């Protein structure tokens, strides 16, 4: 796929036209306050994985609405004191998978928590185990339009709340150091990382790779690739609801969370990425509020982005911050 978006020099200055709701902060403050009325009830059950270099815990905690959310916590086998904590979020359609799918970050001497994504985990990888017990209005198959009739009902309100609670759950374990906490993720996981970066004020760093859920006004009209295309197909049937949908999505746009980012950040973008177009990634990067930020650019890659090269870049970058 040849380059299809703005030239790189224009990307570095690009700003989103996404309109931030006046009650954005109030909406999220109320959402998190309501969630915290439920006991976090974080439980860590040791798992016999057969692996000798790490210890893994099967985690359950209360997310949005007190609903049970799963995760894995993996630490180096010999850990006996609090470790820097890396909280990871998963790409669209995936779940927490199996413990042996997540060995990189514990192998660097950190505690690693991976959150299951409610209702997902059936599209790729080793699967997931977290249901989404909330129903909703008619939606296009997928997750992008579930509850899109109103911000209060939207699917990602639940997911982003789960993600904040995941940080709180992971920090509650005695082998994690709450003062050294990093959020990471790619694609959908990158979009969730941006939300957490805007909602959790005391993170050490964030690293969103080719993040999804950014600059909805441009993304939904620039690419015809799923998952963004789900929104267009919904509106193709539900004619006349575009303004209502835009309003809902504005509460979940990574650009607005980025404007509240208070930690150093390492982004990545791929210039041939048709799933998360580079301009939408740069929209969030350029809005990121903390001055210590950088972005790795992969000129000839699609949505796979930097892949293992980006993992190596993150490891080097985090070494100076943890």
TrEMBL record:
SUPFAM superfamilies: alpha/beta-Hydrolases. GO terms for biological process: polysaccharide metabolic process. Substrate binds at residue 92. GO terms for molecular function: carboxylic ester hydrolase activity. Residues 1-319 form the Acetyl xylan esterase domain. InterPro entries: AB_hydrolase_fold (IPR029058), AXE1_dom (IPR008391), CE7 (IPR039069). The active site is at residues 187, 273, 303. This is Acetylxylan esterase. It comes from Streptomyces griseoviridis.
């Amino acid at each position: 796929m040849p380059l299809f978006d703005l030239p790189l020099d224009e990307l570095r200055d690009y700003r989103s036209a996404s309109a931030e709701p006046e009650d954005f902060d109030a909406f999220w403050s109320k959402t998190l306050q309501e969630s915290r009325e439920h006991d976090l009830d974080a439980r860590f059950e040791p798992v016999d994985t057969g692996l000798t270099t790490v210890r893994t815990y099967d985690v359950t905690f209360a997310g949005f609405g007190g609903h049970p959310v799963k995760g894995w916590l993996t630490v180096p086998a010999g850990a006996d004191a609090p470790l820097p904590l890396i909280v990871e979020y998963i790409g669209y359609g995936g779940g927490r998978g199996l413990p042996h799918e997540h060995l990189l970050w514990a192998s660097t001497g950190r505690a690693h928590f991976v959150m299951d994504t409610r209702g997902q985990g059936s599209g790729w990888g080793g699967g997931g185990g977290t249901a989404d017990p909330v129903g909703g209005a008619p939606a296009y198959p997928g997750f992008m339009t579930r509850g899109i009739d109103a911000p209060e009902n939207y699917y990602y309100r639940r997911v982003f709340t789960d993600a904040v609670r995941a940080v709180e759950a992971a920090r509650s374990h005695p082998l994690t150091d709450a003062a050294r906490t990093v959020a990471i993720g790619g694609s959908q996981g990158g979009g969730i990382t941006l939300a957490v970066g805007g909602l959790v004020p005391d993170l050490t760093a964030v690293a969103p790779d080719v993040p999804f859920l950014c600059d909805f006004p441009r993304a939904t009209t620039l690419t015809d690739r799923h998952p963004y295309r789900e929104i267009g197909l919904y509106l193709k049937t539900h004619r006349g609801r575009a303004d209502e949908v835009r309003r809902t999505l504005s509460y979940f746009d990574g650009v607005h969370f980025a404007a509240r980012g208070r930690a150093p950040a390492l982004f990545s973008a791929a210039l041939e990425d048709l799933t998360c177009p580079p301009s939408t990634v740069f929209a969030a990067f350029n809005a990121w509020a903390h001055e210590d930020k950088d972005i790795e650019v992969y000129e000839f890659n699609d949505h796979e982005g930097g892949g293992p090269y980006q993992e190596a870049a993150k490891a080097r970058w985090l070494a100076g911050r943890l």
